[in-house]
Amino acid sequence: MSVDLTAALLKIALFLAFFLGTLAPIMVWVERRACALIQDRPGPNRLGPWGLLQPLADALKFIFKEDITPTEVEKPLFLLAPVLAMLPALSTFVVLPFGPPIEVGGRVHNLVVADVESGVLLFLALSSLGVYALVSAGYSSNNKFSLLGSIRASAQLISYELALTLAVLGVLLPVGTFRLDAVVAYQQEHLWNAVPQAIGFLVFLVAMFAETNRTPFDLPEAESELVAGYHTEYSAMRFAAFMAAEYINMAALSALCATLYLGGWKLPFLNPPSGPWALTALVSFSGLAVKVILFMCLFVWVRWTLPRFRYDQLMRLGWKVLLPLSIVNLLWVAVATLQGWM
Amino acid sequence: MQLAVFALFALLSLVSAVVVVAHKNAVYSTMSLVVVLVSSAALFVLLGAPFIATLQVLVYAGAIVVLFLFVIMLLNLGRENATGEAEAPRGSGQKWGTILGAGVFAGTLLALIWRTYGSDSLEPLQAEAVATKPLATLLFSNYILAFEVIGLLLLVAVVAASVVARRVGSAGEAEAEKEG
To answer: How many CB atoms sit inside 10 A of residue B4's CB?
Structure first.
């Protein structure tokens, strides 16, 4: 096996071990416990210390539940939809840098899985494919609630993608490239982007909630009106796939937000040790992981604090508030870059 | 290796393109269109133009086709056509339209093939020419007029769409004005 392939596989394994193996189950536990805390009740606390083994029990339950395929569904699309949900969720992280270049055996490796020129665009392109999972799940289920959920999802995702992309453009303008490692390097020389581009940061943050269908924007799966929206008809592991995809998407977008606005893998006043390469890589990766975990806690906190928006409010916020704000941010960055303030 | 990847994605895009046209259910057609777009993006990568491939997925597969699907699902076209109940009446106009469209497409394709293989004046695509910066420089120097005209065209389309959506004199407008 060639060195490049081994390196790429190692990096992918690191991301998967964190996103899929650690963060997703822990976040399910955090979500349930934090929700209980906010609602003044104990929450799941029986299995293991503080109920920490609860996600394991949940996963086992999902595996052993009966997998039901209703008779009237469009079978090919119905079976494909959970796969389509996992595919973009498990591929967007490839462009995220997680450390300084390291030297292994006389060769320099950039700590990013796919070291491509179109960096952040590839992230946006892959994550924009996620909407097909929701749409095909809703359509193929042959169920009014599912269909309504997926129609809502497609309109919502398209609307907020616009503001999100324009906010990202503001970050790229002073850096002058799509490469995310350049964005991180830029923030080491200047301030974190969240300070000069506070408006863009805010727009990105709000659009992030809408893109991942999280409360207060979880209208595609609003349980009080649509049962469970696009995944009403799914059970067992197929349902679990949708849920896991949601958590991994949250983690990936959090990592992108941390990279664009909060200095990426670099923690303030802490430099990764220049000892053995594995140590450097792991320590700088934990820098990114810490920021991702902070964002995930924000997701949970907001979910159990704010009520859900109405659909017209959601559309008004997206088109009449966030989009103009992101354009204002872009103009400000353009002027500041031309004047040499950034 | 490169040939195998090319064969895979070329075949995939051809087969899905046929499905787009031939499938009775509009939702399946649209989903196949996504496969066509993504696999032709893969072909762009093989040609050494990853930036164009990314834009293809981002703009077409990620945004425009989603709107197609949105309209199809909103009008609930897929299912009715699948059962054959609400089949549109086929007049002679449609027949001639089909023939005309196919003729224009075949002519364009032939002209392109002729231009590619008929002369050796065309140089192979340079990776540097389709990278982000040179592409942007070309767009904003040589092709600035075309670029701006396309922008204007899109603006006209947006204005037209909002005029159509307004429905002058209906109850909806009075309500909208009351709200605003």
So the answer is: 8
* Angle formed at CA A300 by CA A297 and CA A303, multiple of 5 degrees: 150
Name the closest residue on chain A to residue B50, using Cα atoms: A118
Average pLDDT over residues A161-165: 89
Of the given ranges (A101-115, A141-155, A169-183, A308-322), which has the lowest mean pLDDT?
A101-115
Structure tokens at B37: 């777009």
Q: Which of B29, B36, B70 to mutate to test the interface with A (most CBs of A within 10 A)?
A: B70
Cβ pair B31:A128 closer than 8 A: no
> pLDDT digit string (tens) for A6-19?
878 888 888 888 87
Residue that has been written with the tokens 């959090």 in this structure: A254
| Residue of chain B with shortest Cα separation from A141 | B79
Pick from A121, A136, A157: which is nearest to B31 by CB?
Answer: A136
pLDDT computed for residue B180 by the predictor: 44
Q: Which of A197, A217, A198 is CA-nearest to residue A207? A: A217
Chain B residue with Cα closest to A153 = B70
Closest approach of B4 to chain A, Cα-based (Å): 19
**% of residues, chain A, pLDDT over 70:** 99
Those residues with Cβ within 8 angstroms of residue A71's Cβ, 6 or more apart along the chain or in another chain:
none
Phi-psi label, residue A105: left if phi above 0, alpha if psi -120 to 50, beta otherwise? left
| Top-confidence residue, B150 or A1 | B150
> Which chain B residues are within 8 Å of A157, Cβ to Cβ?
66
Contact A213, A220 (CB under 8 A): yes
Among chain A residues, CA nearest to B63:
A158
d(CA A272, CA A291): 15
* Rounded-to-integer distance, Cα A266 and Cα A285, Å: 9
Q: Is the pLDDT of residue A172 over 50?
A: yes
Residues in chain B predicted with pLDDT less than 70, given as ranges, are 76-91, 118-125, 127, 167-180
* Predicted-complex ipTM score: 0.80
Q: Output b/e per residue, B88-107; b: 16+ Cβ within 10 A.
A: eeeeeeeeeeeeeeeeeeee
Tokens of B71: 């309209």
E strands, chain A, in order: 102-104, 107-109
Q: Which residues of B touch A74 (CB under 8 A)?
A: 27
Q: Express the helix, strand and coil content of chain B in percent, nearest 5 each.
A: 80, 0, 20
Average pLDDT, chain A: 84
pLDDT at position B170:
55
Q: Is the peptide bond before A70 cis (omega within 30 degrees of 0)?
A: no
